Amino acid sequence: MLPGAELPLPRALVDVVVGGVVVTGRVERLRPTGLVVELPGALPPGDGVELYWNGADGVRVVPARVVLCWTVRTGVRVQLVPSGPAEAGNRRDAVRADLRLRAQLTERESGAVFLGRTRDVSETGLRCLLSPGPLAPTTGAEVDVGLTLRGAVFPVPGRLHRVSPDEDGWDVVVAYAGLCASMADLLRAQVFAALREQRRLSLR
């Protein structure tokens, strides 16, 4: 591995891009020579790939080479060795899943409440379609989003990053802010499960 190479941490969701095809997986562990990623299918050893993930300062990308693959109960694990330094990436769809979850968004300062459903969810934020009402959501407002997951409502703190009018209401993007570790783990697991199911259906 390159000395001081920047890599995603264990359990992080990643996009592996090979030959123009994007496969989403999860980092299982770091090794002195690179990292091990679990994917839904195998990659040929020797292939060059690009690895995208959400870092502290936005999306990051690092080139890597496949050195080993082996099958496990939940998929295929691939050992990757970085072949260059990490750089800023610009893939909006990196580690983002289409998920339709019931959501209640409350602006902390005004107390305004909006109901709707998510359109997609990632490790760093979510996009919602909110039902129309007498008030418009406020761009930049601090909010609490109640997400219905596994039959229960979980609080997700954040900030309204973008608000756009939609023919069915308001299309909003919420960036998480101050998310606790347990909630981050739950959202990560939900996103990963949804991406695996989407991948399974695409292979039918």
Protein architecture, described:
With 204 residues, the chain is mainly β. It has two domains: 13-88; 96-193, Thrombin, subunit H (Beta Barrel). It contains one helix and 14 strands; from the N terminus they run ββββββββββββββα. It has one helix at residues 181-202; strands at residues 13-18, 21-31, 34-39, 48-55, 58-72, 75-82, 87-88, 96-98, 102-107, 113-122, 125-130, 142-149, 152-166, 169-176. The strands form two sheets. A six-stranded antiparallel β-barrel has the order 1-2-3-6-5-4. A six-stranded antiparallel beta barrel has the order 9-10-11-14-13-12. A hairpin with a 2-residue loop joins strand 4 and strand 5 (58-72). It is elongated, with a radius of gyration of 18 Å. The mean pLDDT is 86.
CATH topology description of the largest domain: Thrombin, subunit H
Tally of helical segments: 1
What top-tier CATH class of the largest domain fits best?
Mainly Beta
Alpha-carbon distance between the termini? 37 Å
Label the CATH architecture of the largest domain: Beta Barrel
Task: Look at the structure and name the CATH superfamily of the largest domain.
Answer: predicted glycosyltransferase like domains
| Run of helices and strands | EEEEEEEEEEEEEEH
Please give the domain count: 2
Task: Summarize the topology.
Layout: E1 13-18, E2 21-31, E3 34-39, E4 48-55, E5 58-72, E6 75-82, E7 87-88, E8 96-98, E9 102-107, E10 113-122, E11 125-130, E12 142-149, E13 152-166, E14 169-176, H1 181-202
Antiparallel strand pairs: 1-2, 1-4, 2-3, 3-6, 4-5, 5-6, 5-7, 8-10, 9-10, 9-12, 10-11, 11-14, 12-13, 13-14
